[in-house]
Fold each of these.
Amino acid sequence: MAVLTPLFVAAAAAAALAAALISQYGFDLQPCVLCIWQRWPYLAAIGLGLAAIALRRAPARLAPAAARALTGLAILAVLVSGGIGGFHVGVEQGWWEGTSGCGSTSGTDDLNALRAQIMNAPIVRCDEVAFSLFGISMAGWNLLYALGVALVAIRAMLVQSNARPGA
């Protein structure tokens, strides 16, 4: 397996994280709980992709198979982020309820403590679209992006395995 596929997956995951952070810190679009959850699998995909690249250079006999497995796990991590994005779209559209952390920061029964918590922390609801482009929310774009990245990477892995039987 060429080093390009795990590099592509790691770079695509890094680009998705960069877009999320630029949206948050550059355009003040504060993330909700589900937005944060969509970021973690991309971090895993970066690590797995880089580990696959490092293994590819290892002299061990099982290194190519292990590199393919790590690349497959990196692709799976990207798909997990897309799956969370798909769930988030459903919450935004009202198709189903969000998680307990969506829009609620309360963890207390004390009315004064709850009031102070609400006044001090911005509540970012998962069921409200903070930004959309062409009618698609950021969670929807993440779903489409993750599917696209996964399809390209899987296709590349299949082409590489067919080009070199036994590899």
Amino acid sequence: RPSRASRLGAEIASWSGTLKTGAAMMLVLVLAAIFAPVVAPYDPFVQDFMNPLPPPSLAHPFGTDNFGRDIFSRVIFGARIDLTIGF
């Protein structure tokens, strides 16, 4: 009798490439949300009034909002709320 891991591997192998890509993207999103305090480069609530609305850069991949808060960090922390509501 095949083990559970081998059956799971066979099931995943039968998925289309699109389904595998979507599942991988969802897994990355869920892991980023779970580990948001480690992954997010900045505190999503700290305001930097001297740095409002710069374009995306290496320091701020999505830029900052009009209060100087890092948008990338806010998106990662927001994913926690979205996934909680979704589940």
Amino acid sequence: MIDLQAAKQIVIARHELIGERKYPVLVFDEGAKEVKRDARIYLSTEEGMKGISAGAFIVTNPVTKMVIQFWLSLNVVKSNFPIKSFSKEHEAVQW
């Protein structure tokens, strides 16, 4: 489960790793069973998205795919970079 505290730690670790640069990000739907609402909201903020130049979600679970599509429909407008979901990693990397 990713709660607000975990989301903040993820962002801090990313900032420490990349500094002021920007990189594309691949997010896999494996591992975390749940991302809490406050964590999703935080990850959608300017601070939560800092350092990301593009975002690709690799989604294999049909239910998760519906959730991701809904989340993207709400947050793509707020981001200043392209975001898209894929079912295959190689498609996301090519994108």
